[in-house]
Known about the structure:
single chain, mainly alpha, two-stranded antiparallel sheet, 12 helices, 67% helix
Amino acid sequence: MKKYILLILIALTSVAYAADANSAIFGKDLIPNILAYDQEGSLHLGKWFTILQGKYFSMAFLAIALGIPAVFLVHYLIIGPMIFAHDRKKIPVFTMFHRLIHWLAGFSFLILIPTGFVIVFGTFFGGGEFVRVCKELHAISTPFFAVSVLPMLIMWFKEMLPTSDDIKWMMILGGYLNKRKDPIPAGKFNAGQKMWFWICTLGGIVMIITGAIMYFQDFKIELITSLGLSQIDLLRLSAIVHNVFGMAVAALFMTHVYMSVFAIKGAIHSMITGYKEEEEVEILHSTYYKKLKEKKEV
């Protein structure tokens, strides 16, 4: 009996969408895709997608949304911000082009991340128009971020490559757990900034691709078909990857904002004026400062 009901449903569905023969979901591949569901050769993502999407992803995003700000609040109350002298020389570190690209990405994230959280917790918000608008804002802001990714990757690639200083920086957590002004081993960018850069750029590219797959959903690419990957497997894989990278991006963006706005007093001005205070560079980027001294640029 169940077999006949399934066949009837398949027949009705295929008739309803027969007009769109080129559809990757509702076209001529519909019945083969249904019959091949979770069979040999598929990615068997149904179970994992249901578990992760239905429970664990929302828990992880909630932990990030509440946990990270709480940790930073404790840090601010106990350790407090780093304060550097403003009466010494100001060192040029960012060009106008650097700053424009940075702010383009930054403003994009100010829309992408909050709307992303709303999408994750859509059920909590009751779905409806508010969640739909957030979904569209999320999609609209993505191209603006996409425009900034390649320029960032090109202009900072060399300076973001790992060095031995990064290991030393990680071992002392950048010196942020004490109130002393000990010189911190770091180049123009420290290990934390490098971590954020790679997640933002390479991770961002992955998120753009997976996000586009989920947004448009019904499309057909011969390469994907030739690999034997069904559209439902592609959508589920994209959702899983997008969420995992989304957690990393959200966590590190919050960290980046805290460090530049609260943890280091006045640090955000370097992305407004292009200059850093000499003492800030001398302490927080000691290796870079020594190189500038050797070149007699400070």
